[in-house]
Amino acid sequence: MYAQQPGEALETGADAVRNAVRAHPVILLSMIDAESTETNGAVLGYRLLPVTDAAFLEFLGLKPGDILSTINGIPIEDSDRVQETLSSMSDSNGLTLTLWRDGQLQMLTY
Questions:
Q1: Comparing C-alpha atoms, which of 38, 95, 31 is closest to residue 64?
Q2: How many CB atoms sit inside 10 A of residue 22's CB?
Q3: Structural domain boundaries of the chain?
């Protein structure tokens, strides 16, 4: 069992989720649901769908309807590319998601 040290900040649920995703980005695949979104015949990204555990998305600053377009600058054109990109990042020092929300391009970094 872990004992909190004096002066050590208690990790919140949001911090725990962000730290887990930063350490093991592939867990995103088991926690989100998404569908391919196209514009003018080209894949724009993957639209995040509502999930049972909405807190997971909220902890990451994501919302249903967001369109995930890149992961660490790598465009995601198909589901295999998403899997491949996230799986290859398990030892990464960070994770940056680029997404469209309400017509605006945003970047989230973990």
A1: 31
A2: 15
A3: 13-109
Asked if 37 contacts 61 with a C-beta cutoff of 8 angstroms, the reply is no
Q: Looking at this protein, which amino acid is placed at residue 103?
A: G
User: For residue 50, how far is the Cα from the chain centroid?
Assistant: 14
Closest C-alpha to 86, from 46, 42, 44, 39: 46
Sign of CA dihedral 87, 81, 98, 72: positive
Going by the DSSP 8-state scheme, the letter that residue 88 receives in this structure is T
Residue 31 and residue 60: Cα distance in Å, rounded?
11
Q: Does domain 13-109 have CATH number 3.40.630.30?
A: no
pLDDT in tens, 27-66: 777 778 888 898 888 888 999 987 777 788 888 899 999 9
For residue 92, the one-letter residue type is: S
